[in-house]
TrEMBL record:
Protein name: IS701 family transposase
SUPFAM superfamilies, alphabetized: Ribonuclease H-like
NCBIfam families attached to this UniProt entry: transpos_IS701 (NF033540)
PANTHER family given in the database record: TRANSPOSASE
Pfam short name (any one): DDE_5
Boundaries of every Transposase IS701-like DDE domain copy: 4-223
Domain of life: Bacteria
Amino acid sequence: MSSTELRHFVSESAWDAAAVEEVLWEKADALLGADDAFLIIDDTALPKKGSESVGVAHQYCGALGKQANCQCLVSVTLANDIVPLPLSLQLYVPMDWAADPERRAKVGIPDNVVFREKWRIAIDEVRRLRKAGVRFGTVLADAGYGHCTEFREALSSEGLLWALGVQSTQQVYPANVKTKMPARIGNQKHPIPSHPVDAASEMIQALGDKGFKKVTWRTTTTGRPMSARFARCRVAIADGKRTGVGCRLPGTEAWLVCEERANGEKKYYLTNHPTDASLRKVVGAIKARWSCEEAQTQTVKSWSASRWSDEFSSWFVDRDIAA
């Protein structure tokens, strides 16, 4: 293929990825799909120097660990045990791009591509995959998605479990919180919670050091146990009706989990696992996202070189769509 032909294929030719996605997703489900499989939502950033690439903007770049000029894509990965398989990459188009007709026309952004928040892109991909028959039971994502009430509610409405990172400032109430309407005083129109709202960090701090337990969620291929200290408590997330600026009533009940790493750093998570779920099960779900990342740099390099190439080449040949 000449450079001219390649440029035309990449930048000008119109082709539908649906047929390729169908093959990929069917094979991915056959290899990894199960009710206990995980679907991992993440951002993939591509650092850029210029301003002409579609969607490029000054935004958080995970590849660099800071705000930088980059393109951002919402990635979706299916994982089972420590074996991951990327299923989808959808470009995030910032509002500045989506609302600029001149810029859109210059790079050929289709009319049907409009601004969508990252969580909306992610939930649309979740629904597309389920409709295609890809099996998974739990969705994982970092705090960039976990802070979003609408994202959590959309996953719950799909009947899915979720384990999502949140900031230490995430507002929560004790699980036994009640609300009641006050006596008619002034212009009070909203119920009053029986307990004050707290930050996630404050709720965990109240458990004390005894609230933490060492949990090993898996053993590496070299036999090294992967473990850390975790604490958890049931909470009502402050995602109910708004009562004022920055204030919300108690809403969804969930587990609030804190991970204390060896260096003292603490990470916080919310998960809708049932009340009788063991701590080890909840931790295993939370840490599956990092198991996926580690597998991508270790296990998959050797495992995929032999098996994946054979599996997929025979699959495409069988379908008569090999190159």
